[in-house]
Here is the input.
Amino acid sequence: MATIAVIGATGRTGRVLVERALASGHDVTAIARRPETLGLRHPRLTPHAADVLRPGDLAGTLSGHDAVVSALGSTGRGPTTVYSAGTAAIVAAMGTSRRLVVLSSAGLGTPPGAGPVTRLAGRLLHRVMRHPYADMRLMERLLTATDLDWTAMRPTGLTDRPATGRPRVSVGATERVGTRTSRAELAAFILDRLDDPATFRTTVAISS
Here is the structure.
């Protein structure tokens, strides 16, 4: 079993990650501005209050974990730095920890061979989500400049449906996946592939 730090643990995806990790036998550090709102008590759960956008808040928190998973995300379509600035703070605080997984979006790329309808939908989505997507791209570029074993997960539209156990996955995000991704499916894949070198230093598109 692993020791895992989940950042953004009280968000909709972060909460699923924490619950799934505990159910799988991992030790979890749940990091959020108000971790008490997670509403969970478990002998292998350590809540930790921190704001990743506040300088120094993560100091000494992440080192020594087998993996760090960031479930940070913006709540709107306007300008944001939560992905890039948050990830920069995480990278600076990793210490001896080497494995980092972050959440991005499948909307950043259109796979080769996509049909005209898919391409048109992609252009429209980029227009609507231009600010969050710009910050996600900056985050992914930041990761490539590190020596960490990072993965940028690119799910399609997130839902609260149960996992199917049969995710559609494209390592490198070069192939088309489905239009919706269960948060439970996403969490299961992340936790199952923490030690998979095939997912290191690359993007991974996923859907249910």
